[in-house]
Amino acid sequence: MAELLKGKRGLITGIANDRSIAWGIAEAMKAEGAELAFGVQMDVFGEKVKPLAANMGVDLVLDYNVQDDASTQAAFDTLADKWGGLDFAVHAIAYSDKSELTGRFINTSRENFKSSLEISAYSFIDMAKKAEPLMKDGGTLITLTYQGSRKATPWYNVMGVAKAALESAVVYLANDLGPQKIRVNAISPGPMKTLSGAAIGGARKTFRFTEANTPLRANATKASIGGTAVYLASDYGECTTGETIMVDGGLHILGLPQPENF
Ligand SMILES: NC(=O)c1ccc[n+]([C@@H]2O[C@H](COP(=O)([O-])OP(=O)(O)OC[C@H]3O[C@@H](n4cnc5c(N)ncnc54)[C@H](O)[C@@H]3O)[C@@H](O)[C@H]2O)c1
């Protein structure tokens, strides 16, 4: 490895287990020399993530529940105390009531709309606000999105609206934070076999369909998403901000499935 992130310190959120996209990002960033801290929904995934962190040599495993300001503030306070600064933060967090990730979008409830957008989109704005004072020499903020933000995608429903809000937040945050050399970008993978991915109706069908129809005839991998995050957090990404980078085998360029699958 070229150690593209040597000397950089960053917070990675959204690890539930070793199938999480955030775990793939952590592996890639660690391999490139970054020093990492994990922000984990401790009451739900703490027992799963602690041994993974120990194996990777990550000592700072902090509670990070985006619905609890005290938890997220304490995480950033600890980083300020231990590191005195921060070079990057990864937001790989989303949640919606599973019962609304199937059927018709029109049936979205007010309650689930509010909590899905709070957890999946507002939490990135909150992360940026809390990270800003620590990024005194500039930095990088990365979030994860999905093309269901722009195109009606079966069963993605309210998560599509949440991802649209998230992608819009990326450009507003990039503009706010640009003068401080803090870059803000999103990575948009195709469907992945993760806990959250499995919560979306028809997940297996979607996965098989996209694998058979992308120009590359392949879905994204954790390594390909991790590599994109490494690029964004490295000095090679210094002129990229406000962007949503597609890592989906080319799925988003298609108008129709491949002829062999009609
Ligand atoms: N799996 C896919 O097909 C896919 C495709 C494109 C984008 N994404 C996005 O990637 C990101 C990571 O998802 P994943 O697929 O790795 O699934 P995952 O289930 O492994 O990760 C989702 C994470 O969200 C966290 N989370 C949920 N509610 C939270 C809260 N209140 N506070 C703090 N954390 C909370 C969970 O702890 C979990 O670690 C999500 O934003 C997801 O929408 C996933």
UniProtKB/TrEMBL annotation:
Catalysed reactions listed for this entry: a 2,3-saturated acyl-[ACP] + NAD(+) = a (2E)-enoyl-[ACP] + NADH + H(+)
InterPro entries registered for this protein in UniProt: Enoyl-ACP_Rdtase_NADH (IPR014358), NAD(P)-bd_dom_sf (IPR036291), SDR_fam (IPR002347)
Catalytic site positions: Y146, Y156
E.C. number(s) listed in UniProt: 1.3.1.9
Pathway where it operates: Lipid metabolism; fatty acid biosynthesis
Matches recorded under Pfam families: adh_short_C2 (PF13561)
Biological processes, Gene Ontology terms: fatty acid biosynthetic process
Binding site for NAD(+): G14, S20, I21, Q41, I93, K163
Transcription regulation among keywords: no
An example Gene Ontology molecular-function term: enoyl-[acyl-carrier-protein] reductase (NADH) activity
Record's keyword terms, sorted: Fatty acid biosynthesis, Fatty acid metabolism, Lipid biosynthesis, Lipid metabolism, NAD, Oxidoreductase
Entries under CDD domains matching the protein: ENR_SDR
Coiled coil: none
Source species, domain of life: Bacteria
UniProt xrefs under PANTHER family: ENOYL-[ACYL-CARRIER-PROTEIN] REDUCTASE (PTHR43159), ENOYL-[ACYL-CARRIER-PROTEIN] REDUCTASE [NADH], CHLOROPLASTIC (PTHR43159:SF2)
Family: Belongs to the short-chain dehydrogenases/reductases (SDR) family. FabI subfamily.
Record-given protein name: Enoyl-[acyl-carrier-protein] reductase [NADH]
Originating species: Planktomarina temperata RCA23
